[in-house]
């Protein structure tokens, strides 16, 4: 995770947030959310993250990066990284969905969902 954060800082990512979602999400333990101003910056950040994570010993699957012009998602297993342009980040508000105030999953809640 430190390699990812340093890579984002080096690429001038804005408003980098790291969320521990253990017990809140069943697909990962940590989320990193960051903002880039233009699509080209998002693509560069994603490429540099791939390199940085590889050097740290985490090699992404070929399909681990999904991208649009406003949002790049990188699935590194226990770490999922979301890179947004400002308007998309405001629209999806992942910090509110997965932040410390979000509900913790419990066996009772899982059972109720069936």
How would you characterize this protein structure?
With 114 residues, the protein is α+β, with helices and mostly antiparallel strands. It has one domain (2-107): Beta Polymerase, domain 2 (2-Layer Sandwich). The chain is built from 5 helices and 5 strands. A 5-stranded mixed β-sheet has the order 1-2-5-4-3. β4 and β5 (79-84) form a beta hairpin. It is globular and about 35 Å long. The model has no long low-confidence stretch (mean pLDDT 87).
Summarize the structure.
By secondary structure, this protein is an alpha+beta fold.
Could you list some keywords that capture this structure?
5 strands, 114 residues, 5-stranded mixed beta sheet, Beta Polymerase, domain 2, 5 helices, alpha+beta, globular
Strands, helices and their partners?
Layout: H1 2-10, E1 14-20, E2 30-35, H2 39-55, E3 65-67, E4 71-75, E5 79-84, H3 86-92, H4 94-98, H5 107-113
Parallel strand pairs: 2-5
Antiparallel strand pairs: 1-2, 3-4, 4-5
Helix content: 25-40%
Task: Tell me the strand order in the biggest sheet.
Answer: 1-2-5-4-3
Query: How many E-type strands?
Result: 5
- The structural domain count equals 1
The end-to-end span amounts to 34 Å
- Helices and strands, in order, run as HEEHEEEHHH
Q: Main beta sheet, described?
A: 5 strands, mixed
The top level CATH class name: Alpha Beta
Shape: globular
Uncertain stretches of 5 or more adjacent residues: none
Overall average residue pLDDT: 87
Kindly estimate the percentage of residues that lie in beta strands according to DSSP: 15-25%
- What's the helix count? 5
Radius of gyration: 15 Å
Helix-strand category: alpha+beta
What is the CATH third-level topology name? Beta Polymerase, domain 2
Assign the CATH superfamily.
Beta Polymerase, domain 2
């Amino acid at each position: 995770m430190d390699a990812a954060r340093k890579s984002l800082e080096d690429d001038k990512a804005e408003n980098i947030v790291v969320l521990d979602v253990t017990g809140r999400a069943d697909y990962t333990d940590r989320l990193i959310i960051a903002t880039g101003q233009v699509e080209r910056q998002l693509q560069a950040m994603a490429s540099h993250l791939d390199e940085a994570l590889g050097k740290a010993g985490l090699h992404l699957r070929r399909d681990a990066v999904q991208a649009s012009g406003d949002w790049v998602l990188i699935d590194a297993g226990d770490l999922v990284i979301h890179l947004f342009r400002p308007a998309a980040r405001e629209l999806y508000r992942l910090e509110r969905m997965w932040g410390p105030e979000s509900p913790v999953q419990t066996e009772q809640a899982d059972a109720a969902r069936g």
